[in-house]
Design a protein that fits this description.
single chain, disordered N terminus, alpha/beta, 8-stranded mixed β-sheet, Rossmann fold
């Protein structure tokens, strides 16, 4: 993404204090972006922001007010918002057998609501600037399935959100896409890393996903679902076509 004489492009990254979010902040900084690092963990957000010469914002993406505040602080600091990477996520806090409403809501609050609230908070600023780009971090689990049932459910919903909302935002010059990584070597996978590797499964480095996010930010298309896995470049996935039934089909 290029900008005019007003300055370098500005991106806000949720879940930016570690893993994919931190790798994305570093990579985009290296490409000339100014970054706002948003995370619930203040010290981690501050460390990454200082490394990148950016802004740290402590926020809970499950809070609509926190999302609004994070966007407003970013614009107050940098004078603009050109893109947002809605990346914050947690592993499912419960499954079918240990289900509780509160643990379920804790999962959805971050993995689904946090993206919806971030999208809603970013849109006015992007429209004010004449457009921009939104990238949602999804998951391969949102295209297939996972033993982590409610995490996968949220990621499936994000794919539906992107495909449904993107056409409605095109008139405003706003692109909306999702990047769906496979297994990524982040702290969240640390407890199961040995078992995954024992099965011969490859774990992508977070920077591979960050590179994919950079690719999507540079791409002019919208409403796309991109996959990225260890050793494989980012690639868009074709949307399935399911024609609606019509009266013509019922004619003898």
């Amino acid at each position: 993404m290029t900008t005019g004489p007003a300055g370098r492009a500005v991106v806000l990254i949720t879940g930016g204090g570690s893993g994919i979010g931190a790798a994305t902040a570093r990579r985009l900084t290296g490409r000339g972006w100014r970054v706002a690092v948003v995370d619930l963990d203040g010290p981690r957000a501050t460390a990454v922001a200082q490394e990148c010469g950016g802004l740290a914002v402590v926020a809970d993406v499950a809070s609509p007010d926190d999302n609004q505040r994070a966007m407003a602080r970013t614009v107050a600091e940098f004078g603009r918002l050109d893109a947002a990477v809605l990346n914050a996520a947690v592993a499912g806090r419960c499954g079918l057998d240990d289900f509780t409403p509160q643990r379920y809501r804790d999962t959805m609050g971050t993995d689904l609501d946090g993206v919806v609230y971030g999208l809603h908070a970013a849109l006015p600023w992007l429209r004010r600037g004449g457009g921009g780009s939104l990238v949602v971090t999804g998951s391969i689990a949102g295209l297939t399935g996972s033993p982590d049932v409610f995490y996968a459910m949220a990621k499936h919903a994000l794919v539906g959100l992107v495909r449904s909302a993107a056409p409605r935002l095109e008139a405003d010059g706003i692109r909306l896409n999702t990047v769906c990584p496979g297994l990524v070597d982040t702290p969240a996978l640390a407890p199961v890393r040995p078992a995954l590797r024992a099965r011969g499964l490859l774990l992508a480095d977070p920077d591979e996903v960050a590179a994919a996010i950079g690719t999507v930010l540079d791409d002019d298309r919208t409403g796309r679902v991109w996959t990225v896995q260890a050793g494989r470049p980012a690639a868009p996935v074709d949307e399935p076509t399911v024609p609606l039934a019509t009266r013509e089909e019922r004619r003898p």
